[in-house]
Amino acid sequence: MKGKAMPQEESVLRLSRDEALEAARLWQECGDAREFACRVLGGVMNALMDSEAQQMCGAGRNERGGGRENSRNGYRTRSLRTAVGDVELEIPKLRHGTYYPEGMLARWSRVDTSVAAIVQEMYVCGVSTRKVERVASKLGISSLSSSEVSSLCSGLDAEVAEFRRRDLSGTPCCYLWLDATYMSCRVGSSVVSQGVVTAIGLGADGRKHFLGCDVVDTESEDSWAAFLGGLRERGQARGLQGRRQGPRARRGLPG
């Protein structure tokens, strides 16, 4: 009979009596567990950065010695968004050269792909950047400004452009559905009505494929011809049958 495997011993942080008393004092100062976690994480990260800066200088802060290679020159503050909330950091500055804990910040930063995806999803659903900012503050991300929301959502432009340029030669379709939806769009300082034209193809296997989209000022023969020409250039075969949806289904649709 085989004996049971012994559970692996987990690494547990051991605190000295003084450290435990300091942690208890900090807990009393904090209003909730989130604030306590932010204060603890900030203290740990600041201590790690201080240690790395000392190694780069070859000596501790205010320590004099022949082996010193550099010296400290104060610090700069930065707010880092993490899984437990915003953490206030004090990043050391050096007299010569720079120190930037890129690996540490990347590891603990909360604004990663998952958070960016949430912000982008709200943006796509029509939520304004200021409302996204308010939602983020309730999630503990208090310093996510409207400009930062716009910056996160700007990544959508590259993804949409890549999607619209993708090769379609591997998606042969025998039938196309073409349609347009008019939406209010901001162009410069004005809001105007523009048409979003779309193409959905039916493959030989009976599956539908979203082939492409474009924004046009008006549904003219030239705009439809340019849109369909782009599909052909990306690999869609010629001679496709097409049906335009809507009350003007047979007006001006290039064959």
Automatic annotation (TrEMBL):
Q: Could you cite one Gene Ontology molecular function of this protein?
A: transposase activity
The family database entries (PANTHER family) matched by this protein are listed as:
TRANSPOSASE FOR INSERTION SEQUENCE ELEMENT IS1081
Q: What does this protein do?
A: Required for the transposition of the insertion element.
GO-annotated biological processes: DNA transposition
Q: Which organism is it from?
A: Collinsella aerofaciens
This one is known as Mutator family transposase
Q: Does the keyword DNA-binding apply?
A: yes
Q: Write down the superkingdom of origin.
A: Bacteria
Instruction: Could you list this entry's UniProt keywords, alphabetically sorted.
Output: DNA recombination, DNA-binding, Transposable element, Transposition
Q: Which family does it belong to?
A: Belongs to the transposase mutator family.
**Which InterPro entries does the protein's record reference?**
Transposase_mutator
